[in-house]
Amino acid sequence: MAWLTCSFGGRAGGRPDAEPRLAITKENANWVVRWPRGAADFVLQSASDLSASAWTDLPVAGTNTVFQIQLSQPAGNAFFRLKRLP
Known about the structure:
Blueprint lengths: L3 E4 L15 E5 L2 E7 L5 E6 L8 E2 L3 E2 L3 E7 L5 E7 L2
Parallel strand pairs: 1-8
Antiparallel strand pairs: 2-3, 3-7, 4-5, 4-8, 6-7
């Protein structure tokens, strides 16, 4: 069984109390990861191991209100984080 886990990083919109929140849901055979459109200065990254030093940037699609990505069921663990762009 694979688990999807999210972690949070940085602040959205420069406000100290506004951390972007990831929402992970299962829709049919896919997992969907979403976060608020206001967090445009973040990139979604994934790794199969939390101790991994290399996280991979994931391509996303945006709507007027959210960013999202649809993923198939991973073969193993999948960890996600939002990283603030420089």
